[in-house]
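Q: Here's a chain of 237 amino acids. Please give me its 3D structure as tokens.
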Amino acid sequence: MRLKPLTLYSSKNLPGLNIDDLTGWLFVIEGPDGSGRSTYIRILTDWLSAKGYATINVGLRRSTLVSAEIEKAKQGHTLDERTFTLFYITDFFDQLENIVIPNLKAGYVILADRYIYTLIARGAVRGLSSKWIEDICEISIVPDIVFYLNVNQTILIERNLLKHTTFDFWESGMDMELSVDIFQSFKKYQSLIKREFKKMDKKYNFVNINANRSLNVVCNELKRYIENCLDNNINKK
């Protein structure tokens, strides 16, 4: 049993949850589209599995409860900011209850492709209160490490165009009417999101990773942090 089990953001517990039962690890990778999140998670999953750790992935819009409905709503561009955020929070908590907590109890390593921090940032730039979102999500499990992949805007633009040849409607903030030009809107929106993550940096103890560097260099840095965390906790058992 870990001497320092995962805790909650508040003193409130999910019904029936004993924090001491959570013997696994939760690592979160945050960062904008084009920062390499999914690539790093795939590599880290293979690496952890090879080291003998049972590993599972979670991320936004992956619950069996509402993920399909969120996708439909995104296509229609009709939901207001509050409803859209609540949709994503529902998706998050469905995975928390049915995937994250059971697998932490089973001692798994969980790699999360984004977490509540993205929901807070997206909501804040659209005029919602950060505290309102934080209060709803206050019983979230605190990750062992939250990585933030920091990428400069020029590289971010190049990577997005290389991967998609165009910009995503939502990741460009086109719903916010920042600009009629999607390129300009993308730049403005990503700057706003980055500003919100900077506000959360110290509060949530992010580990900032310079993701402008090569894939191998960034991946090796992520591995070092994770390996140190795993080794320290194993030694304390």
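Q: Can you summarize the key feature?
A: The chain is about 50% helix and 10% strand.
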